[in-house]
Automatic annotation (TrEMBL):
It comes from the Bacteria. It comes from Rubinisphaera italica. This is Type I restriction endonuclease subunit M.
């Protein structure tokens, strides 16, 4: 079981969002920062335990990290890319699940 931390557990790299994600956040009167903070702290949202465990492992091995959060009628995904050859994550994207 994932236990969120009070501080970031990995870097996000450049952060971008799709227009659809920004519109859904606005409709729900929520901010991208609150979901990015949850994602970066290890609160993976509405993932099954198997996917949450994959994220926990990804923090250590540098693979891709995915969080999923209910946002009214929409599902917001946050994806942080795998690390590059230098051990850095290039980007984190906020998007709606149907935009993937």
């Amino acid at each position: 079981m994932t236990i969120p931390n009070d501080k970031p557990t990995f870097s996000l790299g450049a952060t971008v969002a799709t227009p659809g994600a920004l519109s859904a956040l606005e409709r729900a009167q929520r901010t991208p920062l609150e979901f990015l903070a949850r994602h970066q702290a290890g609160d993976w949202g509405d993932l099954c335990s198997e996917d949450a465990e994959l994220n926990d492992t990804a923090i250590k091995d540098g693979s891709r990290i995915l969080s999923s959060y209910e946002l009214g009628e929409d599902k917001l995904w946050i994806i942080t890319e795998a690390t590059d050859d230098n051990g850095k994550r290039s980007a984190t994207t906020l998007l709606l699940s149907h935009e993937y």
